[in-house]
Specification:
Layout: E1 3-7, E2 10-13, E3 18-25, E4 33-39, E5 46-52, E6 58-60, E7 68-73, E8 78-83, E9 92-99, E10 111-112, E11 116-121
Parallel strand pairs: 2-11
Antiparallel strand pairs: 1-3, 3-8, 4-5, 4-9, 5-6, 7-8, 9-10, 9-11
């Protein structure tokens, strides 16, 4: 059974940093793309970033480019999202996701985590 378990969310002041983690288990993800979505209150879920597990190719939403960095640790089967220069508009529930295809245009990735709350105060 595939499990994606996020951690690392919390409350931070604007300009601060957080690192999210997503521990993946239950299958081999070497041919998968893994990444992050987020959903703010009253808004639709949106793509944040993804990374191809084998090649390391990355993609970022324009709103986070230059501030967020996605990475993975193959040995630990863990995905990360380093978030710097956080803004109040980054406040959302952040979800880890995995799919055989690029995530930017996927409405329903094959696998989702349960989400972790990130709150940025002004």
């Amino acid at each position: 059974q595939v499990q994606l378990v996020e951690s690392g969310g919390g409350l931070v002041q604007a300009g601060g940093s957080l690192r999210l983690s997503c521990a993946a288990s239950g299958r081999t993800f070497s041919r998968y793309v893994m990444g992050w979505f987020r959903q703010a209150p009253g808004k639709e879920r949106e793509f944040v970033a993804d990374i191809s597990w084998s090649s390391g190719r990355t993609d970022y939403a324009d709103s986070v480019k230059g501030r967020f960095t996605i990475s993975r640790d193959n040995a630990k089967n863990t995905l990360y999202l380093q978030m710097n220069s956080l803004k109040p508009e980054d406040t959302a529930v952040y979800y880890c996701a995995a799919d055989p295809s690029y995530l930017r245009y996927k409405n329903r990735p094959a696998y989702w985590g349960q989400g972790t709350q990130v709150t940025v105060s002004s």
